[in-house]
Amino acid sequence: MSSRLDDAQFFAALSRRYADAAEEAACLRTQISALEQERDGYRDLCNERAGQPSTSTTSQEPAGQDLQTLGAAALERAREEYGRLKEEVKVAQDTVVSLQTENDVLGKDLAASRAECRVLSVNLDEARQARVALEERCAALEAEVKSVLEHANKTARDTRDAEIDALQEALAREKAANTELRRKTLDKSMLSTVTSSLQAASTSLHRRTESQPNLGLRRLSSRLSDTSHKTLPPPAEQPARPPAVASSPSYVTPIPDERLKELDRLPRFEWKRSSSHIDATFNRKFLADQIGGNSQSLIAKVKNQKNLAFFAGIDKYLCPNLDQNPWCPAVPGQHGYMFVGLGAECDTFLAPERCTLFIGQKRDSRAAGRFQYLGEYIAQRVDALTLDEWNTLSPEMKEPYCETTFNKSKGLGSAKEIRAKYDSGQLRVPCVRLQCVGFEDYVQETLAKTCRKSRPSIVSSPPKKRQRDVHDEGGRHRKMPSLP
Prior knowledge:
It is a single chain. By secondary structure, the chain is an alpha+beta fold. The chain is 59% helix and 10% strand. It contains 10 helices and 9 strands. Strands 1, 2, 3, 4, 5, 6 and 7 form a 7-stranded mixed β-sheet that branches. The longest helix is centred in the N-terminal third of the chain and has 159 residues, at 53-211. The radius of gyration is 60 Å and the shape is elongated.
């Protein structure tokens, strides 16, 4: 449509130009006629005044010729312009014909495109309807899958709970069998030790009898010799003592009331003091040699279990010290807290974990640098210390703890800046609750005896040998070491 308007405008402009040229040619002819008339009048006037018609005739001819020449030239230019315009009109007409042909072709293409658009619109509507139907089907399938998954999860949970219950029962049976096996092993070990001691005492008494005959000693030697060659009966079971719950000494630093109430709500473990080596302490290298794990880390993970760790089921044990953990338990059966969670340990014990606990003694004690076995504990992270709870701690604890924070946590500034942040409440001490749930006599007995055999100095306060009175034949009184 726009091409047709352009053609009409072009032809209108061409017609206006042609009309303007015609008007200009008519105007020129009129001017030529006026000039000729003016020339003739001027010529007649000159002839009348001069009375010389011959000269005027000769002088007028060139002027007339000039005007004719000018008019002919203008007419020739008009003809040329007309011819040029005529050629342009012809070219324009050819262009108009070509554009009209192209326009017809484009019109046909437009009609075809409109028909195709209508078909596509119908197809689009059908696709939209199909999508809506598919979405409804997907929603129904999702609801069905969700229902099936919920049913399957419920069934799986029930099955898993049943399997867990069965495994827990089997584990309890295995633990009971393991405990009985350890008891029998311990009894056999004690029997072997007693037999070896009796044989050594018998040999010693035989030597003394040969050098100094003595009827009483001879009889004793004979009885010991007979006893050493016989199999000793298993030791008679001692009557069960009433459960002696470990006393709860005060903590290194008093625990605030709210924290104590939280510990009081936990089940209390009744610990029987059945081991004579309960106060024995050990260094970290000895623990790493006997159990496994790192001898430096507070949280020691046992990857390659030693025999003791394998039989006792120890895969992780804790070694906090009382200097930086003044709320830790001091005796078996006691609950407490430890301040663990700095640096790489920030994500530890978010879920409850069962661990073996060895508590490090204070620096000012005789067992400084050694660790005492306190039993089996469940460790779980609780709320960090508040500012009021931080203020209850002693300065002797705060300074080393700030140094530990500086070494484990980067980007907090110097130890002095860290202390200021703790004092202002900007930093808070992480806290892990320790709940006592058991005590393995086998672990304590094995560690103490192994330590005594290898390096007696490792065990603190070794028991002194008892002495008994012996009178020889001459009535002289002397003291001899008693049998173990």
